[in-house]
């Protein structure tokens, strides 16, 4: 997981003019939520991404043990983001549930 995040962060660092960030988190993976939090906050420190809206997909909401939006908000320390608009969208990617709602939000927030 760390290697994937590092590659993504490097990709973002090379692509200027980002208007929005979409971050996908496995709602059932409580063992790696801290790693996701660290990488998210590290990514958000990038100068090119300052103030860019953040939409987080809380994926796998259909599975037992999935963290709620409130739990993920706490675990990812999202209330610390005082200068950025953000939203967590519960979703089940395999069924398409919640995907369009998240895309609608980020689209409306950017424009």
List the helices and strands and how they pair.
Blueprint: H1 2-14, E1 21-26, H2 33-44, E2 54-59, H3 69-75, E3 86-90, H4 99-110
Parallel strand pairs: 1-2, 2-3
Question: What key phrases describe this protein's structure?
Answer:
three-stranded parallel beta sheet, globular, alpha/beta, 111 residues, disordered N terminus
Description:
This protein is an alpha/beta fold. Helix content is 40%, strand content 15%. The protein has helices at 2-14, 33-44, 69-75, 99-110; strands spanning 21-26, 54-59, 86-90. The chain starts with a helix and ends with a helix.
What would the average pLDDT be, to the nearest integer? 87
Please give the order of strands in the largest beta sheet: 1-2-3
* Tally of DSSP helical segments: 4
How many angstroms does the end-to-end distance come to? 32 Å
Question: Biggest β-sheet: count, sense, barrel?
Answer: 3 strands, parallel
| Cα-atom radius of gyration | 14 Å
Q: Strand-and-helix sequence, N→C?
A: HEHEHEH
The share of residues in helices is 25-40%
Unreliable sequence segments:
1-7
Q: Give a count of the beta strands, DSSP E runs of length 2 or more.
A: 3
Shape verdict: globular
Structural class from helices and strands? alpha/beta
Beta-strand proportion: 15-25%
């Amino acid at each position: 997981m760390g290697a994937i995040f590092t590659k993504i962060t490097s990709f973002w660092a090379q692509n200027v003019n980002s208007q929005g960030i979409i971050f996908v988190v496995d709602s059932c993976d409580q063992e790696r939520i801290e790693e996701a939090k660290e990488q998210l906050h590290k990514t958000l420190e990038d100068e090119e991404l300052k103030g860019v809206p953040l939409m987080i997909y809380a994926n796998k909401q259909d599975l037992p043990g999935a963290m709620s939006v409130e739990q993920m908000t706490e675990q990812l320390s999202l209330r610390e983001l005082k200068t950025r608009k953000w939203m967590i969208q519960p979703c089940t990617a395999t069924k398409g549930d919640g995907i369009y709602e998240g895309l609608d939000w980020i689209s409306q927030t950017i424009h």
